[in-house]
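Technical annex, item 7. During the second reporting period the consortium partners agreed on a shared format for inverse folding records so that results from different sites could be compared directly. Each record opens with the tokenized structure and is followed by the designed sequence. A conforming record, contributed by the partner at site C, is shown below for reference.
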């Protein structure tokens, strides 16, 4: 269980020297601090505590959570104890769940998730980041399952069970209407892998960075995670999984299910000509295909090989990169994690893409919470990192009119 299957891959990474050219680049390549949970290497992909994520895809989600929190795999006894702690903390106060019934059902599920974290924080935040991280990790499947049930009108939230694993319990609490045993088993298998693949992605992805920035002002864990989830809600970040599935469906509708590659190529070129983004492709750090996309497609071959959307995803994986690759400004034309996840979720019975980003959030709160614990409780010999405060230059026009006239910094 303690095997080290691969090495951390940050050595040799080139970082940008801070110059005027570093401005308005979204802090690309600007080092900020240390990440103790995971690393992203442009060429090699994502590593959790030094281990390639694709090699962890089939591990037990609760054990991977333990790894991210403790930087070591649990022994069998530690694993059993951790599972007990999660069960002991999983009950969400009824008033929090009752508040969901007051929300407009037209509101996007990510707005519901931000509400859920904010409301739970009113009754559950203790100010102790470690305690709150465990509590939120235990409760987040309950919150997300309740968001599905109440917003979709499937019925009242289902209480968590003590006898089920972390993701098994989540799928049980979803109680997707009409899902037969075969699809339930497939959805459970998918959610176990999906959860593991989305837990963490280095220190600088937008939602993680926002969560840590908010926590740097000593906001509590729930406030920090609420802000992080608002950051995840954008289409260039977490909502790309919803947008990508909708794009896959559009391809299927427009070119039919005959997988007409030329028809798909024409669609892609037309979208690019219209200045539209091709969701599920590209990355701010990776310069190769996202290994999580490969892992999800490999799972798709097992659970939904004949699904039309899934076949379209595979076709897009082949036809999109050569087209994006002809544009020299696009740094990475390859599929990212969001390219395949939606088609698998749809095939396994979660047929409303509006919810795909809350599933990303369900998982990502774990990595962000673990990183907040480091920055608030462990960094600088336990003093914590200082409040985030980068410098901006004062300029009346910025670069809105080309070159900026810089008057002072602050
Ligand atoms: N389709 C169209 N244009 C793209 C593109 C894509 N898939 N990927 C990059 N570009 C464009 C950018 O918009 C940018 O245009 P600009 O110079 O006019 O602003 C230019 O190419 C250079 O971008 P880049 O350096 O290659 O990428 P980036 O670091 O600025 O952005 C990302 C990264 C992911 C936002 C971008 O690739 C993108 O928008 N992809 C589609 C959305 C997506 O799938 N997001 C999910 C990412 C993973 C995640 O967080 N879940």
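Designed sequence (site C submission):
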């Amino acid at each position: 269980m303690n095997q080290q299957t691969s090495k951390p891959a940050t050595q040799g990474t080139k970082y940008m020297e801070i110059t005027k050219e570093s401005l308005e680049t979204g802090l690309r390549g600007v080092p900020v601090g240390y990440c103790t949970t995971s690393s992203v290497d442009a060429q090699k992909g994502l590593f959790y505590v030094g281990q390639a994520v694709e090699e962890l895809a089939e591990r037990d989600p609760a054990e991977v959570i333990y790894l991210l929190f403790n930087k070591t795999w649990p022994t069998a006894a530690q694993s059993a104890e951790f599972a007990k702690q999660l069960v002991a903390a999983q009950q969400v106060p009824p008033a929090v769940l009752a508040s969901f019934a007051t929300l407009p059902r037209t509101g996007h599920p990510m707005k519901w998730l931000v509400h859920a974290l904010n409301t739970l924080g009113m009754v559950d935040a203790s100010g102790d980041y470690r305690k709150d991280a465990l509590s939120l990790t235990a409760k987040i499947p309950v919150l997300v399952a309740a968001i599905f049930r109440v917003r979709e009108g499937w019925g009242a939230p289902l209480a968590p069970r003590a006898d089920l694993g972390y993701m098994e319990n989540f799928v049980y609490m979803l109680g997707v209407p009409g899902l037969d045993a075969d699809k339930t088993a497939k959805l459970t298998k998918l959610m176990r892998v999906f959860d593991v693949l989305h837990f963490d992605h280095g220190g600088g992805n937008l939602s993680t960075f926002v969560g840590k920035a908010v926590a740097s002002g000593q906001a509590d864990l729930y406030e920090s995670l609420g802000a992080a989830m608002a950051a995840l809600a954008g289409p260039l970040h977490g909502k790309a999984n919803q947008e990508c599935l909708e794009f896959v469906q559009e391809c299927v509708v427009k070119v039919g299910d005959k997988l007409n590659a030329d028809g798909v190529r024409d669609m892609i070129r037309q979208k690019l000509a219209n200045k539209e983004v091709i969701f599920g492709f590209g990355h701010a750090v990776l310069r190769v295909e996202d290994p999580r996309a490969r892992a999800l497609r490999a799972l798709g071959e097992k659970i939904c090989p004949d699904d039309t959307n899934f076949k379209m995803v595979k076709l897009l994986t082949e036809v999109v990169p050569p087209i994006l690759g002809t544009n020299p400004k696009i740094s990475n034309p390859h599929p990212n994690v969001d390219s395949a996840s939606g088609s698998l979720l749809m095939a396994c019975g979660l047929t409303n893409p509006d919810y795909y980003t809350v599933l990303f959030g369900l998982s990502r709160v774990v990595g962000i919470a673990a990183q907040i614990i480091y920055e608030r409780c462990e960094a600088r010999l336990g003093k914590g990192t200082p409040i985030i405060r980068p410098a901006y230059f004062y300029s009346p026009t910025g670069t809105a009119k080309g070159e900026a006239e810089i008057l002072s910094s602050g």
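The radius of gyration is 21 Å. The first helix runs from residue 53 to 56. All partners now use this format for quarterly exchanges.
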